[in-house]
Design a protein that fits this description.
Shape: globular
Structural class: mainly alpha
Order of helices and strands: HHHHHHHHHHHHH
Radius of gyration: 25 Å
CATH superfamily of the largest domain: MetI-like
Largest sheet: none
CATH architecture of the largest domain: Orthogonal Bundle
Number of domains: 2
């Protein structure tokens, strides 16, 4: 007789009311975000006569990228009609140094608070976390006065410093929690070998923090690229970011309201954070889990 071998894999879970409710919630949540995205995409591919028909969810009868071209190169963003491309390159000029400086300072601060403890380290960390929960709009006027006195208001260095300051609490928390979860023996071994503060950070700690660096990049790129009010106040007229240009296009009250151009400009503005997230999404989950082991 041949013996029957029972399958060793995981048994399928029964479909309980709780699981049905969970799936229904996930499905509704997905629709909540996907339906507006679908509407923006199909509207950006329609012509204005087709949009006026009012079939919001209908696919375009003759898809066209004309609205995308106009949004990028010739849409009016105020007194000029150079499209949203000017704001795109301004946002890149703001984004790159802001991300690099904020992550560099935040990782160094988190490392110092994790391994080089000083008597006031707890107070400093508590102050950083307290400030992180204060609405940044409260600080705008004092910072405007400070930068004006320093002679750097309405400039690229000003907006880079602003994003570094407001990103410091979150970056410090992320890297402090991650470094605190690492074995202290690594730090002690490097100290025995004669490595100093920066040598340990650069050669030992930072190479091990790749998942957290990816998380920091995603968070900072998303926050800085999507920023509106800080860029409007501190960047100056020559460095207005893409979000300000988008606001000028969408809220323009002159001429015909071209909804297809508005939707195309919106999608172009959101493109960079989406690409960054989808390109490194698996690292994001891994980094968050790695920084949540020990606080």
């Amino acid at each position: 007789m041949v013996a029957m071998v029972e399958p060793t894999g995981p048994r399928p879970r029964p479909l309980t009311p709780a699981r049905i409710g969970l799936y229904a919630f996930l499905f509704i949540s997905a629709l909540f975000f996907l339906v507006p995205l679908y509407v923006m995409i199909v509207t950006s591919l329609k012509t204005m006569p087709e949009i006026r028909l009012g079939n919001l969810l209908a696919l375009p009868s003759a898809p066209s990228i004309e609205a995308w071209v106009k949004a990028w190169s010739s849409a009016c963003t105020g007194l000029t009609c150079n499209g949203i491309s000017v704001g795109f390159f301004n946002s890149v000029k703001i984004l790159v140094p802001s991300v690099i400086v904020s992550i560099a300072v935040g990782s160094l601060t988190g490392y110092a608070l994790s391994f080089w403890r000083v008597p006031v380290a707890g107070i400093l960390f508590g102050a950083l976390m307290t400030v992180a929960f204060v609405p940044y709009q409260i600080f705008i006027y004092p910072l405007v006065r400070i930068f004006a006195s320093a002679g750097i208001s309405n400039s690229l260095p000003a907006i880079v410093i602003i994003h570094t300051i407001f990103g410091l609490p979150t970056m410090t928390l992320l890297f402090r929690n991650y470094f605190a979860s690492l074995p202290i023996e690594l730090f002690k071994a490097a100290r025995v070998d004669g490595a100093g503060f920066f040598r340990i950070f650069w050669s030992v700690m930072l190479p091990m923090a790749t998942p957290m660096l990816i998380v920091a990049v995603i968070l900072q790129v998303t926050g800085i690229w999507n920023d509106f009010i800080l860029g409007l106040v501190f960047a100056g007229r020559e460095n207005l970011p893409m979000t300000v240009q988008l606001n000028n296009i969408v809220n323009s009250t002159q001429g015909e309201r071209t909804y297809n151009v508005d939707m195309a400009a919106t999608l172009l503005t959101a493109l960079v954070p989406l690409v960054v997230y989808f390109a490194s999404g698996r690292w994001f989950v891994r980094g968050i889990a790695a920084g949540a082991v020990k606080g």
